[in-house]
Amino acid sequence: MEKRLAAILISDIVGYTKLMEEDTEGTVMAWSDARDNVVEPQVEAANGRLVKFMGDGFLAEFNTIQTALECAIGIQNGVKTNSLKFRMGVHLGDIIDDGKDIYGEGINIASRLEGIAEPGGICISGDVFNQVQNRVHAEYEDLGPQEIKNVAKPVQAFAVRFEKLKLSSEKNGSPPTAKKASLAVLPLDNMSDDPQQGTFCDGITEDLITSLSRIKFLDVIARNSTFAYKRTSPDVRKVALELDARYVIEGSVRKAGDKIRLNVQLLDGSNGAHIWAQKYDGDIIDIFALQDDFVEKVSREIPGCLQEAESARALRIQREKMGPWDACFRALWHYNRQQADDFSEAIEWAELAIDMDPSMGLPWAIKAASYSNMQGLLFNSEQQELVEMGRQGVALAPKDPLARALMGHTYLSAGNISGAQSEYETALSLNPLLHVAWFGLGWIQVWEIHSHQEGREAILESIALDPNGPLTGRKYVALAGSYLGENKIEQAKENIEKAFLSNVSWPASIIKASVYAQLGNLNEGQSILEHMAQNHPDLTTNKFVNIYKNPGPAVENVVKGLEMLNFPSE
């Protein structure tokens, strides 16, 4: 069983028993028509869950308070031509879900609110009213506190007076699943006795909101909404429901002498589970410099965590319930795995995202980069069509740094080194914290431009920004290459072994075998090549060399080791 917070809508038909006595067949037909043509479509459009029908009513739950109330209004407007009238109650409360049904005090309260609603009307609790009064433009009548059986405190109730409103789900023309992920940054708590630290806390919060707003796949809740929770210690699940936020950041600042500690954590809004947490320490020398330092450090780590969380979420969503962003993140998850089968999957999911929303640039870029990488594995150099596909993605999303970085990958696979470098640099100008762009730039510098020290610094920056992501193995391959270019074989060995912890691709195998050979371990090098040949029997030295447009010292050093192992050249 799962206990969680939910927005609850409960409804029944006014005078159902009497209606059945007077006209059984007509009442059954009217109720069936309302269920099939109004209730079910409205709940589905609001991304709600229709838990059950209850003879003359129904019970549903929703991800947000706003969608629950808007769904109730939509149903009431939709059944106005029907002979039946409904009462409805909406509440935010804890429920227990056993997978088939839901129970709990929250449902008891919603049921009581429904019972005092007027025929054709809606009654909501005070908790709901506090969050929707400025979002759903209806009239609200205060009905005062209501005594509810088995509930210790009276519940404030409000009647909702509504017209045929243009609701948010109708305005945007798409179901909630089409929306981007949303993040609420709550005001940091001041844990010291110094009230001036409150200004410091607010400054960090505001700067985080500004910094994280640069993430193109993310909607960051405005400051005015999140600062309403200042000094309230709210339940994260409640915040997420009230603000329609998928993720929540909260934290605190503690001062001791000249030392300051920032604790910050990223939470899943649906259940309050920790996704990421970190602490940062600093000295009060220049308070503004310290503030900037804290914000930069948090901003480095959050995007990668969110991307992983969104990709993991997309894996759990059924295809038919996906929106374009869900499909896009599913595609990105497969792309990042950097395997031939996954590139095919990435293309399929990117195409689904494009079918749902052709104006999105990122899926076009993912599709192009996936095709390019897949053809590279097959040693196919005909990639101009893919370049044009990637350009289409960039044209649709010219300020999306991830789309620009993926365009860089496509150019790189096509052998356009200057084009790739330009795209990576553009991506970094849009988001200096984008690890994939640092990775791409470092890769070029190591393997194509032969600026080994600069390349190493770029790769290390990428690792610092995302130390455990799906591209980590390839990053260490590039680091190994930077040392090979300087003939530092021991350092190359150390890094290629790190690469093998998460990447066993054939280029990594060839480099590792070569490094072992140059260090005198011919048997181990030969064993690596034999194992690789089981999946890649046609690989040769020339095929390895030809994946680089401008092979230099790093590639030459790899070839040296392969020659020592008598690896076939042709």
Characterize the largest beta sheet: strand count, sense, and whether it forms a barrel: 8 strands, mixed
Structure summary, number of beta strands:
14
Instruction: Specify the CATH homologous superfamily of the largest domain.
Output: Tetratricopeptide repeat domain
Strand percentage lies at 15-25%
CATH topology of the largest domain: Serine Threonine Protein Phosphatase 5, Tetratricopeptide repeat
C-alpha Rg (nearest Å): 29 Å
Output the structural class: alpha/beta
Please characterize this protein's 3D structure.
With 570 residues, this protein is an alpha/beta fold. The chain folds into three domains: 170 residues, Alpha-Beta Plaits; 139 residues, Rossmann fold (3-Layer(aba) Sandwich), CATH 3.40.50; 232 residues, Serine Threonine Protein Phosphatase 5, Tetratricopeptide repeat. 54% of the residues lie in helices and 17% in strands. The chain contains 24 helices and 14 strands. Strands 1, 2, 3, 4, 5, 6, 7 and 8 form an eight-stranded mixed beta sheet that branches. Strands 9, 10, 11, 12, 13 and 14 form a six-stranded mixed beta sheet that branches. Strand 4 and strand 5 form a beta hairpin. Helix 19 crosses helix 24 and helix 20 runs antiparallel to helix 21. The longest helix is centred in the middle third of the chain and has 30 residues. It starts with a strand and ends in a 6-residue tail after the last helix. About 3% of the residues have low confidence.
